[in-house]
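Lab meeting, action items carried over

1. Structure of the three-component assembly. Owner: GW. Status: complete.
Input record:
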Amino acid sequence: MAHTNDIILKTMTQLIAFILLGFSIYLFFAGHNAPGGGFIGGLMTAAAIILMYITYGYEKIEQILPINFTTMFVAGLGIATLAGIGSIVLGHPFLSQTFEYYNLPIMGETELATALIFDLGVYLGVVGVTMTIILTIATDSDAKEDEEKAEA
Amino acid sequence: MEIIMTGLASILFGAGIYNLLQKQLLRIVVGTVLVSHGAHLYFLTMAQLKRGAPPLVVDGVTEYADPLPQALVLTAIVIAFGVTSFLLVLAYRTYTLNKTDNMEELRGSDHE
Amino acid sequence: MNNLIFLPIVLPLIASVIAAFFPKKLNLSRKFAQITSVILTIMTAALTWHVLTNGTIVVQSGGWEAPFGISIVGDGLSMILVMTTYIIGTAAVFYAPSVLDKQQESFYFYAFFFLLISGVSGAFMTGDLFNLFVFFEVLLIASYGLIVLGNGKVQLRESMKYVLFNVFSSMLFVTAIAFIYAITGTVNFAQLAERVEYVEQAGILTTVAIILFFVFAVKAAIFPLYYWLPNSYVVPNAVVSALFGALLTKVGIYSILRVFTLIFVHDTGVTHQIFIWLAMFTMLFGVIGALSTNNVKLIITYNIIPAVGFMLMGIGLYTEDAIAGSVYYLMHDMVIKGALFFLIGALIVAAGTKDLREMSGVIQKFPLLGWIFFVASLILAGVPPFSGFIGKILLLRGGLEQEEFLLVIIALISSLLILFSMMRIFIRGFWGDLMDNISDDRKRVRNLTIPGVVLVSISIFLGVGAEAVYPHVESIANMLMDRTDYISSVLKE
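Predicted assembly:
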């Protein structure tokens, strides 16, 4: 990969990726009773990560974020399903939810909902699947091999 | 407003189907995207576009937007997102293996 | 107890997630998949028995009462189809290790497999039109994953067409739901049935019903929308073809059965008359396709289409006998199509070729495979006393009652031609001189034959033991014709 020196892009990415990540986390926590949610938060996180990939190149980000996105997707799916199953175990219909207000330090009175667990699964799933697909196309390492296969 | 939206949805459908009938793989994928946008927009329009607060129970608000089509369309959008991204990967793989993105050259009835 | 009705949908989803964690550890994932599917099958059988004896179970997900929540309805029809799905799935899991190569098997085969099972069971059990769309997408996404396994050149080419076709029809499905929601203001099956009845299915609803039928017809491969099916079902691996052939088109036909016996039943002169005509063409054209080729797998694939025609015929006739025939045929066809695809996969391995002109004398080396294939052919064609015969006799009786003589004649002719197309494989492939390209790997062929044998014996039981099965099918047909039971158990009036 050719080395370019995009000062503007790199400087702006530091700022924008930070804002994107922060806002995506806000969206994720707002999701259960206000506009937002796991899907949108996840997409925004994925956008931030992709921006970093574009700016700094594949190898560097691979070192900084050594996450297997496929596993992340699967884990997200698992969490979402288990969040639904939990209510069956407790004798309520599938996907039932509940919420409660807690007094947390610093944050004061906070609403915690079980829907958040489901949303966490969605969030992980969306980040995982988006990143998997984009990275699969972007780093098509076995393209050569396939061409040989197609010729054979 | 509904009439404008219906018109827009029909334009999306028309453009999408025109693209679906092209020979290039990528255009076909874009066509499916446009058709799905048309379908989603159409769903929202058919359920009546209302002015009013978000469908959340808050004191003092009487005019609500209908939440059901919003929930359904959101689900449909997520599904369309997943399927489209899969379709892109599939189109890319088909292109690299078959070395063509022309549907005319991708026809055939030989079975290996 | 009621909550357990979710399990056939949710547990395979969890199994799919677990299987996705260790796709490369083949021994572990095989054992895991086999044990899980056997347990799930037993559990589903128990649930089915409970539903058949104690009546419909309805659960609202999230505790929201119908029509606001999403209902999951386990009535007799849904449960027997879910159970059949599980039986075929279990057979497929035992079949898969011998027929897939390692690279295909380790590419999330078991994860996609369980996802497919989850989607199919969900589609059978949902009580909500939009949720039906969601489960369609779940099973389609799983099928997209399965159809590209192996990454062959031709395979990708045909997968592309399959995916595009399904994406387009899914979008039409969304549009049709938009129409229905705009007209009736609900997507719950039971409430839709009530409201459509209330307006006596005004003209526009019939139009929407036909759009909806178009969507299901694409999935079920009904004339003239079946042309995507043969090529895309013949390219993947035998076990994937078996799952597709046994399950996917049947989900489409189930949806037609549900929607056009529960909701849109007030204008049968238009809708159900169209079904009868389409059923005739489907039966004829499918079987002509089966006669037109020498590729053994393609012959079986084409044989899916006339079977769909038979089931559509029962829905079109819309009498109790005919509906019972359709339900019986649906069950029978799922089992026997699974068995035939398994056996054809074994035959292709045994003969080393797909081309009928290049194989002969397979029965001399593999007698069990040959005779089981022979029995399976007879079952498919509907020779008494096997299960195909019971389904067909009910359908034909319904046809004679309604004085649709042309339909009955075409049904009989196509049955005969189905038998002919199958016997062509048997006579030219199994009989004759022993060819030297026939495989010596007896162990592998035996492993491939056994799941087929199991399914064929279940199918024989469905036919010979009709005394035990038929009363249940009859009561299911009864419930489908008299819609009040479904509506009142969902809406709890």
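2. GW to write a short summary for the group page. Key points so far: Residues 7-141 of chain A form one domain. Chain A touches chain B through 15 residues (CB under 8 Å).
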